Amino acid sequence: MLRIEHLGKQFGPQVVALQDVSLQVQPSEIVALVGTSGCGKSTLLRIVAGLEAPGTGRVLINGAPVVGPHPAVGFLFQEPRLLPWLTVRQNVEFGIAHLPAAERAARSAGALARVGLADFAGAWPRQLSGGMAQRAAIARALVARPNLLLLDEPFSALDPFTKMDLQEHLLGIWADDRHTLVLVTHDLEEALVLADRVVVLRSRPGRVHHTFHVDLPRPRRRTAPDFQAQKQRLLEALGVAA
Amino acid sequence: MSDSTLTLPPLAVRTAAPAARPLPAAPRAPRRWQWPLGAVLPLALLALWEILARTGALPPNLLPAPSKVLGTIAELARTGELWPHLGLTLARVGAGFALGSLAATALGALTGYAPLARRLLDPLLQGVRNIPSLAWVPLFILWMGIYETSKVVLIAVGVFFPVYLGLMSGVQGVDRKLVEVGRMYRLSGLALVRRVFLPATLPAYLVGLRNGLGLGWMFVVAAEIMGANKGLGFLLVDGQMTGRPQTILASILLFAILGRTTDAGLAWLSRRLLRWQDTHGSEQG
Ligand SMILES: Nc1ncnc2c1ncn2[C@@H]1O[C@H](COP(=O)(O)OP(=O)(O)OP(=O)(O)O)[C@@H](O)[C@H]1O
Ligand SMILES: [Mg+2]
């Protein structure tokens, strides 16, 4: 699905954001990227999305090098980034303007229902709470039916309840659609709840430090002893826990 | 509403909508009648003025009573003399506003969007902006004659700068993050302009248009005072020449009404177009 080969990226003469990062992601896999702030996670995701040009190396999606935003790739930003002049429904339909109206309406209604916002289709973004706005953004990312969804700390600004709720949501949608997810997060529990594989990046220069397979059956319960054991192992891999 | 909840898959049912604010579909409560507090002071002053003028405390050859000013307008309307003046002034402002805002829209969009154009054009335009606009009058009259062209161009110059500045800063200020959303959905060129830049710029642009219109009204007075044989500005000069302050005041009053009305039109348009805005003022509508 996604192949990142020896990717490097430098900003100016000083900042080496990424160096020789290689990563392969299988179809329907969920990969979490974790690492300290400034280690290049967002940069990596933006290059994969085609929003930023790679410095060295290359990124292949289904075998083809990425040269710009790809129709099969969706991006969920850290902020909802809803367009304030469009209603919630119009925002959700923003990326599928090329489809016939009936198809658009059906898809956006489905996506809004899936994130529990069916009653807010006609609302303006300013009328939504932060969690609702982020759910609308999820709906917008999903109506285009991406094969690969990139998520940059999508839930980090939310309270723990909304966050867990949206994680459940995302997993539910993933169970139906089986798209590939690459997710940046600072939250190790989030990584363990969602991901098949956790990739730890190290900073300056940003490179892959460690890859961690999560062998837990779904649905995963945070309180289960084996979940806690995995968390302990991950912390050790990060060099945090003694 | 019950229909849509029925069709929700179990996943969505699990998630109760948190912190639901009032639904936008709910009918808006009719606005409560408020005493027009702002009208109290002007009305009181008018009454005082009327009394002072009638008792002769104010010299009638300098400051005639409000009733006399209104009478003058009524008389001008009755004889039909008013309409050519009014129509011509409106036409001049309309033409100047159209010309000025069209030019400003083209250049403002260009300099806002393309850094190269900004570096090339903006210094020149900013320099021209600093010329007191009335300084153009003799040159315009020399170039284009005393008739309509020079007047319309002068008004257009006045309208141009606020619209240009509003639009340019509006385009420059478009949130990069929203532009990125557009790029993520592979919009580029015209589609990106139409679907992201245009709506994002609209608030600043509309403010620019309103400021431009205000200046248009200022400049039409200047243009008509400089030389015209018709128009509300001509009535000002005429009233001065013939020693009739009621004509001058009538003209001033008409300018005020016209300026206020056209601005209210644009303000109404802004509110309609910017219903989505999340600003301090937007809740009061
Ligand atoms: N457009 C840019 N211009 C210059 N430097 C940049 C740019 N974008 C990122 N950087 C630099 O690249 C490095 C990696 O940034 P990046 O945003 O990818 O980090 P991150 O891992 O996402 O951090 P965080 O966890 O805080 O979001 C940082 O040192 C940052 O200063
Ligand atoms: Mg980041």
Automatic annotation (TrEMBL), chain A:
- Superkingdom field: Bacteria
Key word Manganese present? no
Q: Which InterPro entries does the entry mention?
A: AAA+_ATPase, ABC_transporter-like_ATP-bd, ABC_transporter-like_CS, ABC_transporter_ATP-bind, P-loop_NTPase
Give GO MF terms, alphabetically: ATP binding; ATP hydrolysis activity
| Stored SUPFAM superfamilies | P-loop containing nucleoside triphosphate hydrolases
- Annotated ABC transporter domain ranges read 2-228
Keyword Nucleotide-binding part of the UniProt annotation: yes
**Keywords for this protein:** ATP-binding, Nucleotide-binding, Transport
What's this protein's name?
Answer: ABC transporter domain-containing protein
Upper classification of the organism: Bacteria, Pseudomonadati, Bacteroidota, Cytophagia, Cytophagales
UniProtKB/TrEMBL annotation, chain B:
Keywords associated with the record: Cell membrane, Membrane, Transmembrane, Transmembrane helix, Transport
Q: Does the keyword Membrane apply?
A: yes
**What compartments host this protein?**
Cell membrane
Task: Give the domain of life.
Answer: Bacteria
Q: Which residues form a coiled coil?
A: none
Give the matching InterPro entries.
MetI-like, MetI-like_sf
Transmembrane region(s): 93-116, 128-146, 152-171, 215-236, 248-269
Its membrane topology is listed as: Multi-pass membrane protein
Assigned protein family: Belongs to the binding-protein-dependent transport system permease family.
Name of the protein:
ABC transporter permease
Q: Source species, please? A: Hymenobacter coccineus
